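User: two proteins, same treatment. go.

Assistant:
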Amino acid sequence: MSEELIIPEPDGTVSVAVVYDSGSRGYPALSGRTRVLAEAVAKGAEDVEGTVVRLVPVAERAGHWEALDAADAIAFGCPTHMGSGSAALKAFMEETIRPQFLEQRWKDKLAAGFTNSAGMSGDKLLALQQLAGFAAQHGMIWVTLGQLPGWQTSAGSTDDENRLASFLRLMAQSNSDQGPDLVPPASDRATAKRFGRRIGEAAHRWTRGRVSAAASA
């Protein structure tokens, strides 16, 4: 009689890291608007039972490389400046060439991201595409926003979630003369929190699937 194959169960805990830059282009009173999004994404992921979340400001990344390498999912966030991701996040991206990229340490992790700018468009899509390309070079698996668009009819408003109708990743908008106590608005924060929950749930499904696949190999 053949021995029954027993597939081990994961311990039920997954880790999500949220790496972000939150610059102010020289206006300290306005700094922190992208951080607000990062915190909302983290809160959404934490709401998924068994999810451990780590917030990583890019300026403090030196102390977090081990945690990033061990994470099941990593969300990347930054402001959009001049149609591109911020310089600080791009410096982080280039720093991952050695050893993360060369050793493929992040291959098959989940990746997600978010960006924020003063304009409703602000060419945020270019920044999101930049982040998507970065994740692809690492061999990561992309998590889309997964929300229907809001504010598309005469009955809609800026209070709708996903009011900027993004699909690739989370977009948010912050008025250029207001600080993080007011912007991004509640609708964008709610969109970010729901996105964080989606990332956390996806990480659990992905991790369970990888464990099962490894046991079956």
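Protein 2:
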Amino acid sequence: MLFDFDGTLIDTWRLYLESFRRSLEPHFKRLLTDPEILAYQPIAERRLLQEIVEQAHVGDYFASFLSHYRSLHETHCDGLYPGAIGLLNALRAEGYAIGIVTGKSREAWNTTFAQSKLAPFDAVITDDDVDHPKPHPEGLIAALHTMDVEPSQAVYVGDSVFDCRAAHAAKIRFGAALWSKSTDEVDTFRRAVGALGDAQYFSDPSSVLDGVQIWADHE
């Protein structure tokens, strides 16, 4: 079992937006709005900054981002989604290997994981570990290699079209996490995922285990 992290197991939406907003203020000389930040499709911290600031200053802006991310974590991270820990515990009890493939930097991952009280995962692939971010399948393939699992025996659960495209490229089954989305977003996401190929849709974390067992029964 492979999972995306942000927007799938944990709600860091406000934390990321505010961290990007504050770290980019010196560049734009103002605070960006949420839609302005989202227009950059922020799938990875350093990569977003590389699109905006001069290469010579990326390191400084990334350090600023991480500083804001750490300082805002307690007030702006909204925590694990209800049912996420129960799902992970149930999967472990069933003997599944569990990995994370995330666009987070390793530094941001370490900050959030330390405060999440989650048990260690069998593999964690961050943006620092790959040359190509999602939707490229590199991170998923690396996680499977670490866990010694074949793509045909794996499922990737995520909340974005990038996650879906990466899973298909890696020849891994995809599970669409719907629980972090509004009603309007769910409809749009389902259509976008459906247009890309086969997928299973999960309304809450507790439904993931049932879906995985259905897949296993059809093997």
